[in-house]
Amino acid sequence: MNDFFSVYLIYFAVFMQLIGLTFAAIIDPYINKKHRTVILINCFLTLVLIIQNYLECSFGLVKSEYFYRLIVSILGYVIRPVIIVMWLYLIRKKQRLIMAWILIAINALIHLTALFTDVCFTISPDNSFQRGPLGYTCHVISGILLLYLFWLSSDMYIDSVNGKIESKGINTSNNSLSAAGSNQLKKELMKYGYGLAGLIPTWCVIMIILSVVMDTKIYSDYEPIVFLTVAIVSSNLFYYIWLHLGFVREYEENIRTKLQ
């Protein structure tokens, strides 16, 4: 009974986050249309992933439903890296994500081979999971995308700090501020100012990596929802908060500029 209560509690938490994020993204006046669309797409994909977790666990408990478990397992492996690509759309500047989508297509094609071969993975007639030589394709491709996400996040973090310095009317390109003073101000902004908000995407990357490790180390025959799915739900919410803070800051700076 306690196990079922814990599961219901986790589902309640993730669904409340997902529903709240959906409403917030719809009514938020600061977020532009493109970012709002990306967030709503990710909310939908995350909902599908939660349902996929539940179905995979349910089918895994019934020996005769091994084929249905195979189908939903493929779906889960295909969706996860797509969610990471959606995060890339939130923080990219002018980068084109063609290579990211090529990796997504490769990942999908390799996992679809589970329908007729065990080169990637398969679910045997006795409903047991068997990983093949390419069984870690999703992990590798997701890792590559996460590294790219981390790189873009770091680049964005530096830009956010520089932008905060410029918003204070400080020109670091000339001699109006000494190098020592500029560095000290930058350190203070990184610690206390908007630069701290720039760490949110980086924390999401770390949280995803930790969740994968926990799913690997902590395993149970009954897993209606995994650590990675919970981390994805939370990361969606954190990315929205980060995006909202950025747009509010831009809006306030535009207002101050008009008043001057």
Short description:
The chain is an all-alpha fold. Helices cover 75% and strands 2% of the residues.
Q: Would you give an account of this structure?
A:
This protein has 260 residues and is mainly alpha-helical. 75% of the residues lie in helices and 2% in strands. A two-stranded antiparallel sheet has the order 1-2. The longest helix has 33 residues, at 227-259. The N and C termini lie far apart (64 Å). 30% of the residues are buried.
Oligomer: single chain
- Major sheet: 2 strands, antiparallel
Structural class assignment: mainly alpha
Q: Main sheet: which strands, in order across?
A: 1-2
Q: Ranges with pLDDT <50 over ≥5 residues?
A: 188-194
Number of strands: 2
Tally of alpha and pi helices: 9
Q: Give the topology string: H per helix, E per strand.
A: HHHHEEHHHHH
The termini sit apart by 64 Å
Shape, please? globular
Tell me the β content. Answer: under 5%
Radius of gyration: 22 Å
- Average pLDDT for all residues: 83
